[in-house]
Each structure stands twice: as C-alpha cells, then as structure tokens.
Design a protein that fits this description.
With about 240 residues, the protein is of the alpha/beta class. Helices cover about 40% and strands about 20% of the residues. It has a single domain, classed as Acetylglutamate kinase-like (Carbamate kinase, 3-Layer(aba) Sandwich). The protein is built from 9 helices and 11 strands.
Length: about 240
C-alpha cells in the first residue's frame, strides 16, 4: 500500500493551471482533474492546504504596467484567487472531499476569515483548506503566500505544480532547446542565479524556515501523488 512521505503539505497551483488549454478563465475538465488528484492525497491521509493563483482571470502586474494603481491591481488579483478557490472547493466537495476556503480579505458570505489556529484544526480534522486572497496585502505574490502559510501551519513541504514546465531549468525550455533541467537546487542557487521559480521574497522565506519545495508539472495526471509519495520527479529545492 502506498504511503505519503509527508504528513502536511502546501500545494501551490498557478491560476493558469485551472485554465487548461484555453489559457484563460476556468476549465471545468481541468479543475475536475486537479480535484481528483487532490482526492488521491486525501485518501493517503495527507493533510492538504492549497494556494491558487489568479493569473487565469487577472494579473495585477499587467494592470499596473498599463497605468493602474499597483495596490488596486493587486487587490483585484486577490479577488480572482477567491473565485478560483471557490471553484476548486466546489469540485472537491462534489467528489466527497470536505473543504474549507479561508480568505485573507474578509468576505464572510463566501469564505471563512483566515485564522491560523482554525486552519490547523481543519487540517487535523482531515479537511482540505484552500487559502484565498493571497496575504491580504498588495505587493506580495501568491508564491509568497504559499511560503508564509507553509511556515505558519508548519507544513513539511511545498508542492509547486506548474502548467507548462516539469521542473526548474537554467533557461526557458519553451524557447531554448538546450535548456538544462536541475534535479536538485538550494534556495541560494535560486537567489544567486535569478532562476524563475518563485519571487525572491518567497525564496528567502522558504530558506529562512527550511521548507523544502518540489517543482513539477501538473500536465501529467498523477504527478501530485508521485511527488507526495517520494518519487523522483521535477526539481527538489532545499535550504542547504
């Protein structure tokens, strides 16, 4: 019988992952596939927290680049993550996985407010917790949210599921045929070489709190379970 290598995980999904091949919005087939993969972890008795980006609906940086106030653009991005979180919650609950959405921006009609101790209690009761609305502050990415929440709930690992790459490369593999994939890296490597994995704030937070990170592709069904059970996929990033 398969066993998880980790007891408590944070799964970081990009908003684009929910868009599937259409590239924008929410693809019902893709979100259903992700929900089914999360259920596989749920059945392994893993405690699961999820952070979803909002890039399939709105990108704050793109709005800011076109003259919008950066804080306003970022708040709009946070609201996009709430929409994605509710969609994922609905898909999970349709297949029998108890799920709670906690939002960093208070909106009691649709989600609980983020309370660390309540989130941990949900996890202990084997409920999936989806953290929405980023950190609740502009200028911080959902990558930073993943690192912050992982530290707060004392997660064993962050699983970063990418939509178009299967790990970390020294160049963009979609444009450079000679791009080399890394099997293992340290956070210092990420910061020193400027590798496009997560922003520097998130990388520093993970490094300071010794939180391992696995970067892999979500395109192949079953990869989330493979990462949790310790299979050698993607790129492993550690503090040392």
């Amino acid at each position: 019988m398969e066993q998880s290598k980790y007891k408590r995980i944070v799964l970081k999904l990009s908003g684009e992952a929910l868009a599937g091949e259409q590239g924008f919005g929410i693809d019902p087939d893709m979100i259903q596939s992700i929900a089914e993969q999360v259920k596989e972890l749920y059945e392994l008795d893993v405690e699961i927290a999820i952070i979803v980006g909002g890039g399939n609906i709105w990108r704050g940086m793109a709005g800011s680049a076109k003259g919008m106030d950066r804080a306003t653009a970022d708040y709009m991005g946070m609201l996009a993550t709430v929409m994605n979180s509710l969609a994922l919650q609905d898909s999970l609950e349709h297949i029998g996985v108890q799920t709670r959405v906690q939002s960093s921006i208070e909106m009691r009609q649709v989600a609980e407010p983020y309370i660390r101790r309540r989130a941990i209690r949900h996890l202990e009761k084997k409920r999936v917790v989806i953290f929405a609305a980023g950190t609740g502050n502009p200028y911080f990415s959902t990558d930073t949210t993943a690192a912050l929440r992982a530290a707060e709930i004392e997660a064993d690992v962050i699983l970063m599921a990418k939509n178009n790459v299967d790990g970390v490369y020294d160049a963009d593999p979609t444009t450079d045929a000679n791009a080399k994939k890394y099997d293992k890296l340290t956070y210092l490597d990420i910061l020193k070489d400027g590798l496009a994995v997560m922003d520097s704030t998130a990388s520093s937070l993970c490094m300071d709190n010794d939180i391992p990170l696995i970067v892999f592709s979500i395109a192949e069904k079953g990869n989330i379970k493979r990462a949790v059970t310790g299979e050698d996929i993607g790129t492993l990033i550690r503090g040392q």
